[in-house]
Amino acid sequence: MQIIVEIDGILTNLRPAYWQAYQDAMRQVGLACADEGSFWRVIRRGDPISMVVQGGKPRHIASFETAFSTALGAPPFAEKLELHEDARDYATQLKKLGTCHYVTQNTHAETLWKILTPVTGSGCEATVTTLTDGRINAQFQSLVGSARPVIVLSAGERLLQVADSIGYVPIGIASGACIAKRMPRFGAIATYRDVTAFCEARAEGDPVLVRAGIQGDRR
Questions:
Q1: How many CA atoms lie within 13 A of 67 on its CB side?
Q2: What is the spatial distance between Cα 22 and Cα 71, in angstroms, rounded to a whole number?
Q3: Are the C-beta atoms of residues 5 and 100 closer than 8 Å to each other?
Q4: Which of 83, 115, 170, 197 is the most exposed, fewest CB within 10 Å of its CB?
């Protein structure tokens, strides 16, 4: 089995990095920040970002959106990226299921490679593929070739949509910047709170996974 794993939000805790980017963008616009909990809820729910641009007029909101997008690709964001505390266990569990391909949609692949390599197992250095909008289909196919089945574990909307469109098995993991109830609309056939919950469901023969060709353990 081939497993494409979106690092962002599945193996990494995005909240500190997103919070850093938000604060940097708000300072640039010159407005006061909302509290961290409110900001993170807006991000995860997919609510309009204007909800955390307090007192902002349309021009402020437009300026913030530009500044926030820039901040997501800046060094301070990368410096705040950290692994989930159970990332080593997650990587170990996934390796037992098949060949893992680690991908990211952000521009910090080198940082992710450095923090991911120590948890992927002895003698195994992680390779991180940076996905490029408009080329994701081809990049996926380059990673897995003709092998089937292919599972895509994603914590966000874009990769679920791509997986669904090309016949891979899109699985939502709700530990990143997207809450679980949003994921089915982007194509997820099932959503789990984290990698362990997915692995347990697979082992137990979750009917949704079995119908997608992902068999449980034979007892």
A1: 20
A2: 8
A3: yes
A4: 197
| β-bridge partners, 5 | 102, 153
* Residue that the structure tokens 């679980």 belong to: 180
What Rg do the C-alpha atoms of the chain give, in angstroms? 18
Burial of 93 (0-12, 13-18, 19+ CB in 10 A): middle
SS3 call for 3: strand
**Segment (H or E) for 197:** helix 195-203
Q: At what angle do helices 58-72 and 15-29 cross, to 10 degrees?
A: 140
Interval 18-36: pLDDT, tens: 999 999 999 999 999 999 9
Reading the block at residue 122, the tokens are 């002895």
Q: Do residues 68 and 22 make contact, with C-beta atoms less than 8 angstroms apart? A: yes
Tens of pLDDT along 143-181? 999 988 999 999 999 999 999 999 999 999 999 999 999
Q: Is 14 exposed, middle or buried (0-12, 13-18, 19+ CB in 10 A)?
A: buried
Q: How far apart are CA 195 and CA 192, in angstroms?
A: 7
Q: Which two tokens stand for residue 21?
A: 């980017």
For residues 171 and 182, give the distance between their C-alpha atoms in angstroms, rounded to a whole number: 12
- Average confidence (pLDDT) over 28-54: 93
